[in-house]
């Protein structure tokens, strides 16, 4: 690899795109927005984690999960359990019949903390669980399904059913989970009040930092041979299999990766919003997450971030001004992205903006490098080729 | 048990009593045949005789209802597809299936037998060794000059060769080719025959083919299948003169 | 838990519980048949299926209002008219959607899923704009309200029987259409080998449109029938999504018989468990069992082993 | 931003100067027509930087007007707007016209938290009237406590909460349940009960209280059952009910499930007018009956503090005003009436305290009496809930309840009932 030096990488086209995103998230938005709006952007960004995972899982490997909310929720619940235990000191809960346990347990006649809550006294365990619990569930689901070659639509429907099951369970077991209200009234993280403006601003930057970590992990994966195999698997699963790869293992890996990202996003969501509830796990929430990824461009990890930001910002904007129009807009977005722009924003960017950039910076136009009909793929380890934000032409009508 | 062991020592591939049925229909019915090392075997037979299914069974794409497939002492019916590949069986499909989005180089690189586990694929680096192996195979399959081309721009025949190349780079002991010259021009057929002859110096090859001219060019022995069973087996001259074969091909 | 009941009481209860299972079964069959046709025969996931059902329900609501104000004398029979109109309206909309949207997505089943989800959002909001956010009450004719007294304890609700009859006639109709008519032959031909079907002169685009329209039309009938037992509101359709898809997938995608078998299995399991457990746990367990079985047997109950 | 800032009662003016002069004019008219004291200076009545000017005060309305909850919350929005308009017409609060900022919670709990934060931080509203589900209230609660705001919450709910920053204008569970069960036992001779609810916190808590109370009375609960929200198949539970033959079905099913439940009960041959078993609900208001259909619920009883058919002059006026403002086909349920109380109770607290400061309002609130309440008479308890009477209504086919019983005394609110937890 020629571009090993980080400085050089930042000067490359891909590096510049990352810099632009960093500039937007670290400098422009914090300067332009008041803490209240910035906090909302932070909330949108937590969905970007899910969207990045979906790019890897759905865009690249062709596995559409309609249950990403499950992993988002699990990560979020792990965080919420830790914070709730911290908030439920015996002093703070002195009026309860059993002081020292979360308030909703007391209302439900629980007299001691359930065993699975105990470990969440520990912050390090919590951090581990935020990634570990979603990954473990993803592994179990993935192992059961992918080794038996369940894929495509079937996988989508089963993950959807799992989202439904978990929602009903959490709502029904309210003594252990807080029920439909969720786990609320979270105040401090290791003694640090997360409700103040300063804390919210700091959490925003933590969120941005972790987002970039996940972006780089995703980028690393897609640029290795693994990334190419994921894409290849999507188009020619049998060829990959008969080239000696255990296709199921790769699918499990990428599904777990997406679950881990979603779990981190969920934990940050809990911190930024201040509570967690089953409504973020359910079917509707999970399908909405797919549209973040689809709008950004299902093959572009950077696009996923913009997709999550834009859809959520539009949702807030619409619901403030024209609430009854929002479902129409959202519906049209789904249909439009699928019918007219299957490559989402990243595709539009490549078609319309990049030629302008080329002219502006007098770069060699891309078309000369790869055939216009089918720009070549993904990320290559080798030298010198221009970065392709769309990463791959999505062409379902492959011969 | 002992007999079976002895056989698997003598033969590279021993298929015995192989049967598969789809909802009662036996696509392959109590089939047995044996391959010697470095042999080129061609399977012929009318449409629906079960030829492709045999390859599917050997490479694990279809699971056998009963019977055994012994390869180099290993029972393949119990292995998963990628394990079968790792034990040295390569399979080319009837329609060319290469990775259209990748270049020829990358197609071969992905097939290089290293970094096949998830972690391996994460850690895989393009070493000089890999590059050398890729260039070597590219030479063999007449695609040395096309290494940087996306596979989608190759001609139909070139894609077939590329797929053969993707098998070769895995250094398999047994190559299974399903109609490798289907849809090729005359010139391409000739080159493919030459390619196969080169390959057989180090490989055992099992081919399904319709083109009798081509079969005559390459085959050591020919197995004729009909309705899931072996109808006749032997040299090309032998099976051509077998009345049962003539009956099946010309009788109806 | 059966202490203190006489044998005859218990017998009656089991009879009624069996009937409850059967009515759940007919509900599932009605929900799933339209979807099974579309998914099984075309490979399209129609996430707006529930909204098509609700369109049928709103149609029934409008027809009932029309009869009440214009033809009060014939009110008792409005339901039959409503079913036919619901079928026609939903089928027409289905044909239009197929033309405008679905036909561009045939090779991308996952994308049809997203696009039809978008469609479902739009349909929901349309209902909300037209009929208001509140559920509407659909008035039933008097003869549908009561129950048939079989014994002291055993009473069979007339509308439950009615739903059952509709479900069975539709299942029979679909069977005849798919397996005993020329059109069904064409549909199956297109499913099995599209290029070949086209080559022998079948207008496959037309077949697709009709299939989709038929599936949507059946959803409309289901919706009309559900006004008797469920709610009619802008988002009522969403309640059916998960159950419906599971029934279809569990049955094996391309098998209509499988859909019926799976509807039967799931409904009996659920209603039996509901009797012994609390409702929520019964639901969770049923879903878990179905998902578990699907993990072990992904092709569903009745899938054909196809030689590939 | 897209928020709506409207002075209620059509008093929105573009020009600030004009507005001021008009308001002064209005104030002088008010001085002449009412016995109101002179408008106190703003810096005296507002020491914490709320959005109070010399002639206006800003409040927030925060309900879902989109999403699944919109159906239920719309009535509350209408009632709150009506109350604000009436207060403005009668001279405002401390001589200031109320302006409201309406935000949409979109049936999404983080949105509620967000929007309440916006109302408090950006708009500096003096009070928020809003939230409907417990989940949305729980989401708002930390925000409103953190920024020291005031929330008027209209829904009857499960109790177990008592925030210094919330006035609960609906009944907490014991008020509804104890009166309802006592009535069924005393008037109808009920001995056995079947508890049925949707599966979430309110029905579960309510049934818990009901069960304890039934135990205390020495009577029997023969079944308790929960179904997921949105469940539409109730045949099994109907069979269980038939098997157990309870005297009373105590139902707290909500939403779309309600429609399915009552239709299927009816279809299974249960005629509620026979009262065998008698059905007593705490969740079906006149609003819900519109979706269920009056003929399906004829004969059921509901235990609540308010019915549209209540026969008193306050209510007559209220119903007339509500219909005039929002249309003749409107129905008014328990929560809608409770929402209507919010702005009035706030106005009285402000005027009693002589200040818009939250701390002073909080202190002034307990003991406030509202004699013009449509439900009759209410008084704010020390615990921020309302003393109120509980009534039993019997549903008629036209979708209205006929009030058959009313407690003699005001029921004391008891959000943490001893012995019921």
> What proportion strand of chain D?
15-25%
End-to-end separation of chain B in angstroms reads: 42 Å
* Structural class by SSE content of chain D: alpha/beta
Task: Provide a count of the helices of chain B.
Answer: 11
Q: Number of folding domains of chain B?
A: 1
Q: Which strand order does the major sheet of chain D show? A: 8-7-9-10-11-15-16
User: Percent helix among the residues of chain B?
Assistant: 25-40%
Query: In order across it, which strands form the biggest sheet of chain B?
Result: 6-7-8-3-9-10
CATH superfamily of chain B: P-loop containing nucleotide triphosphate hydrolases
**CATH fold-level assignment of the largest domain in chain D:** Rossmann fold
- The domain count of chain D comes to 2
CATH superfamily of the largest domain in chain D: Response regulator
Kindly provide the name of the CATH class of the largest domain in chain D.
Alpha Beta
Question: What overall geometry of chain B do the principal axes of the alpha carbons give?
Answer: globular
Biggest β-sheet strands, sense, barrel of chain B: 6 strands, mixed
Pfam families (chain D): Peripla_BP_5 (PF13433)
InterPro entries (chain D): ABC_urea-bd_UrtA (IPR017777), Peripla_BP_I (IPR028082)
Keywords (chain D): Signal
Signal peptide (chain D): 1-37
Structure commentary:
The complex is a heterotetramer of chains A (399), B (252), C (308) and D (421). Chain A has helices at residues 6-11, 13-32, 35-60, 68-87, 103-107, 123-146, 152-172, 174-177, 197-223, 225-235, 237-241, 247-273, 283-296, 301-321, 326-339, 344-361; strands spanning 188-189, 192-193. Chain A is mostly helical and 399 residues long. Chain A has a domain at 47-302. In chain B, the strands form 2 sheets. Chain B has a 6-stranded mixed beta sheet with strand order 6-7-8-3-9-10, with helices on both faces. A 4-stranded antiparallel beta sheet of chain B has the order 2-1-4-5, covered by helices on one side. In chain B, a hairpin with a 2-residue loop joins strand 9 and strand 10. Residues 1-8 of chain B have low confidence and may be disordered. By secondary structure, chain C is mainly α. Chain C has one domain (22-240). Chain C is globular. In chain D, 41% of the residues lie in helices and 19% in strands. In chain D, helix 6 packs across helix 7 (201-216) and helix 9 (256-267) packs across helix 10 (286-292). Chain D is elongated and about 70 Å long. The termini of chain D are far apart.
């Amino acid at each position: 690899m020629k571009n090993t030096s980080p400085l050089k990488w930042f000067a490359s086209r891909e590096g510049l795109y990352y810099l632009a995103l960093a500039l937007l998230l670290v400098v422009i938005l914090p300067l332009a927005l008041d803490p209240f709006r910035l906090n909302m952007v932070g909330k949108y960004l937590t969905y970007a984690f899910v969207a990045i995972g979906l790019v890897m899982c759905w865009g690249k490997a062709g596995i559409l999960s309609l249950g990403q909310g499950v992993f988002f929720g699990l990560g979020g619940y792990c965080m919420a359990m830790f914070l709730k235990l911290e908030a439920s000191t015996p002093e703070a809960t002195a009026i309860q019949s059993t002081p020292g346990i979360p308030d909703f347990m007391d209302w439900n006649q629980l007299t001691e903390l359930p065993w699975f809550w105990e470990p969440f006294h520990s912050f390090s365990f919590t951090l581990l669980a935020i990634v570990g619990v979603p990954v473990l569930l993803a592994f179990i689901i993935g192992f059961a399904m992918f080794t038996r070659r369940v894929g495509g639509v079937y996988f989508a429907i089963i993950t959807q059913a799992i989202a439904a099951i978990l929602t009903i369970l959490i709502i029904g077991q309210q003594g252990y989970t807080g029920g439909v209200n969720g786990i609320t009234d979270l105040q401090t993280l290791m003694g640090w009040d997360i409700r103040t403006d300063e804390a919210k601003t700091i959490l925003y930057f933590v969120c941005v930092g972790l987002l970039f970590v996940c972006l780089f992990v995703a980028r690393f994966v897609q640029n290795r041979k693994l990334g190419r195999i994921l894409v290849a698997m999507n188009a020619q699963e049998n060829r990959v299999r008969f080239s000696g790869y255990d296709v199921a293992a790769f699918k499990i890996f990428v599904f777990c990766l997406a679950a881990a990202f979603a779990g981190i996003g969920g934990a940050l969501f809990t911190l930024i919003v201040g509570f967690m509830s089953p409504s973020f796990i359910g079917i509707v929430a999970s399908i909405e997450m797919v549209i973040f990824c689809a709008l950004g461009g299902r093959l572009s990890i950077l696009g996923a971030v913009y997709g999550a930001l834009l859809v959520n910002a539009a949702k807030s904007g619409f619901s403030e001004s024209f609430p009854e129009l929002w479902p129409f807009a959202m519906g049209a977005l789904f249909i439009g992205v699928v019918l007219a722009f299957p490559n989402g924003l990243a595709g539009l960017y490549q078609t319309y903006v990049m030629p302008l950039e080329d002219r502006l910076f007098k770069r060699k136009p891309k078309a000369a490098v790869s055939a216009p009909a089918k720009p070549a793929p993904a990320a290559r380890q080798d030298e010198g080729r221009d970065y392709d934000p769309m990463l791959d032409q999505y062409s379902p009508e492959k011969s | 048990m002992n007999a079976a062991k002895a056989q698997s020592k003598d033969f590279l591939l021993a298929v015995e009593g192989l049967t598969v049925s789809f909802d009662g229909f036996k696509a392959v019915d109590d089939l047995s045949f044996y391959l010697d090392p470095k042999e080129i075997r061609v399977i012929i037979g009318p449409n629906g005789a079960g030829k492709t299914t045999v390859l599917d069974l050997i490479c694990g794409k279809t699971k056998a209802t009963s019977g055994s497939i012994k390869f180099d002492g290993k029972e393949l019916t119990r292995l998963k597809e990628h394990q079968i590949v790792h034990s040295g069986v390569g399979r080319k499909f009837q329609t060319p299936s290469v990775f259209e989005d990748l270049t020829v180089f990358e197609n071969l690189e992905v097939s290089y037998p290293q970094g096949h586990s998830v972690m391996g694929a994460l850690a895989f680096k393009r070493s000089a060794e890999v590059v050398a192996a890729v260039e070597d195979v590219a030479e063999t399959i007449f695609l040395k000059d096309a290494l940087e081309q996306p596979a989608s721009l190759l001609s139909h025949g070139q894609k077939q060769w590329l797929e053969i190349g993707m098998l070769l780079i895995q250094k398999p002991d047994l190559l299974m080719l399903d109609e490798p010259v289907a849809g090729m021009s005359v010139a391409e057929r000739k080159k493919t025959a030459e390619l196969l002859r080169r390959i057989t110096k180090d490989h055992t090859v099992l081919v399904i083919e319709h083109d009798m001219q081509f079969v005559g060019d390459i085959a050591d022995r020919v197995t004729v299948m009909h309705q899931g069973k072996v109808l006749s087996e032997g040299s090309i001259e032998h099976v051509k003169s077998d009345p049962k074969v003539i009956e099946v091909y010309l009788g109806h | 838990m059966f202490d203190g009941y006489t044998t005859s009481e218990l017998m009656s209860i089991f009879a009624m519980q069996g009937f409850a299972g059967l009515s759940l079964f007919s509900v599932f069959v009605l929900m799933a048949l339209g979807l099974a046709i579309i998914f099984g025969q075309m490979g399209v996931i129609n996430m707006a299926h529930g909204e098509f059902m609700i369109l049928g329900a709103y149609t029934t609501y409008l027809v009932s209002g029309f009869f009440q104000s214009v033809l009060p004398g014939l009110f008792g029979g409005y339901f039959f008219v409503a079913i036919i109109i619901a079928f026609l309206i939903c089928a027409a909309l289905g044909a239009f959607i197929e033309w405008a949207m679905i036909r561009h997505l045939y090779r991308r089943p996952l994308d049809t899923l997203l696009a039809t989800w978008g469609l479902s959002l739009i349909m929901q909001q349309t209902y909300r704009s037209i009929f208001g956010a509140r559920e509407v009450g659909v008035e039933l004719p008097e003869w549908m309200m009561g129950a048939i007294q079989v014994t002291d304890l055993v009473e069979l609700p007339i509308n439950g029987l009615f739903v059952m009859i509709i479900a069975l006639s539709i299942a029979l109709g679909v069977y005849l259409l798919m397996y005993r008519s020329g059109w069904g032959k064409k549909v199956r031909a297109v499913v099995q080998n599209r290029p070949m079907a086209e080559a022998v002169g079948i207008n496959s685009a037309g077949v697709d449109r009709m299939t989709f329209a038929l599936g949507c039309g059946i959803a409309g009938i289901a919706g009309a029938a559900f006004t008797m037992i469920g709610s009619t509101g802008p988002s009522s359709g969403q309640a059916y999504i998960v159950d419906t898809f599971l029934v279809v997938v569990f049955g094996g995608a391309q098998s209509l018989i499988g859909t019926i078998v799976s509807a039967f299995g799931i409904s009996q399991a659920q209603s039996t468990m509901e009797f012994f457990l609390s409702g929520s746990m019964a639901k969770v367990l049923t879903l878990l069992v179905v998902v578990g079985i699907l993990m072990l047997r992904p092709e569903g109950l009745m899938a054909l082993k196809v030689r590939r | 931003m897209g928020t709506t800032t409207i002075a209620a009662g059509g008093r929105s003016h573009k020009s600030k100067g004009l507005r001021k002069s008009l308001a002064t004019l209005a104030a002088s008219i008010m001085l002449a027509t009412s016995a109101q004291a002179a408008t106190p200076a703003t810096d005296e009545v507002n020491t914490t930087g709320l959005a109070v000017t010399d002639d206006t005060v800003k409040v927030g309305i925060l309900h879902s007007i989109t999403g699944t909850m919109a159906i239920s919350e719309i009535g509350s929005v209408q009632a709150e707007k009506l109350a604000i308009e009436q207060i403005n017409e009668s001279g405002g609060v401390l001589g200031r016209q109320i302006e409201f900022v309406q935000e949409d919670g979109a049936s999404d709990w983080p949105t509620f938290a967000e929007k309440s934060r916006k109302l408090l931080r950006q708009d500096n509203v003096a009070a928020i009237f809003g939230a409907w589900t417990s989940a949305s209230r729980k989401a708002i609660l930390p925000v409103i406590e953190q920024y020291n705001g005031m929330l008027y919450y209209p829904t009857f709910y499960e109790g177990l909460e008592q925030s210094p920053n919330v006035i609960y204008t609906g009944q907490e569970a014991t008020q509804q349940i104890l009166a309802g069960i006592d009535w069924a036992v005393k008037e109808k001779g009920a001995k056995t009960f079947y508890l049925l609810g949707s599966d979430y916190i309110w029905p579960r808590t309510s049934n818990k209280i009901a069960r304890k109370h039934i135990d205390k009375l020495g009577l029997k609960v023969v079944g308790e059952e929960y179904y997921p929200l949105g469940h539409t198949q109730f045949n099994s539970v109907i069979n269980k009910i038939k098997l157990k033959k309870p005297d009373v079905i105590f139902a707290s099913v909500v939403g779309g499930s309600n429609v399915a439940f009552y239709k299927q009960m009816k279809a299974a041959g249960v005629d509620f007018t026979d009262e065998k078993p008698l059905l007593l609900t705490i969740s079906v208001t006149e609003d819900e009956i519109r979706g269920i259909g009056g003929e399906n619920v004829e004969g059921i009883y509901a235990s609540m503090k308010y019915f549209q058919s209540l026969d008193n002059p306050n209510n007559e006026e209220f119903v007339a005003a509500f219909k005039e403002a929002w249309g003749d086909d409107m129905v008014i349920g328990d929560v809608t009436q409770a929402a209507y109380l919010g702005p009035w109770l706030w106005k009285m607290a402000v005027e009693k305290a002589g200040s818009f400061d939250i701390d002073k309002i909080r202190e002034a609130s307990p003991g406030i009496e509202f004699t013009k309440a449509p439900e009759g008479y209410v008084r704010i308890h020390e615990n921020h809930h309302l003393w109120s009477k509980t009534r039993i209504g019997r549903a008629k086919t036209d979708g209205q309840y006929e009030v058959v019983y009313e407690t003699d005394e005001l029921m004391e609110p008891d959000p943490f009932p001893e012995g019921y937890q």
